[in-house]
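Give me structure tokens for this 198-residue protein.
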Amino acid sequence: MEIARDVAYVAGMVARSHGFEYVVFGTLDVLTDNDPNPLGKISRSPFITAQIISYMIEGFVSAGVVPILNATGTVNPDVVRSLLTRKMSCPTLVEDKEKAKTLRKMGFDVVFVTGKGELLGKLPTLNVKPPIDLSDLERIRRKALEGAIVLLNRSVKKISVNDPFSVTGVLVFSDEEWILKLAEQVLRGERPSTGRAP
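Here you go.
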């Protein structure tokens, strides 16, 4: 899970290399059965979702960009509670002032940005920014993909790509040849599975 910090750090560096100071990321929702946007969610678990969000906030800040959490759409109250328990928050994107009010009632009292660009508070700025360094981009990307190879059931020799609802074989999140070869090794029992089921 800690790879999320490195992924956010590299993503933050890429954003800065394009002149961005802020980056909108994540979700306050969890994956559910038959979810119409399964790849837009982090996990079925609100606690894992909150932990990944926490790591990503740390990574973005370390890269010198201000993270803005995407709270549009459905909000899972357990994700919010888990973030509050971790004392982790950042500016948050919402559809409107009503959504901001709802989140504040849940104890999530942060700076909000509405879909219309209204600021409800003052966005922070980061004064100390490391030099932009994209040298680790490919290494981190590959490490994240390799760490997300999920063995679901070895009895069916099947590799599913980007299908978190798959229940048999191996699940991967790229159709690149090198990751498919690693997935085949997991299916044959030659390599351990490193990912968690969504």
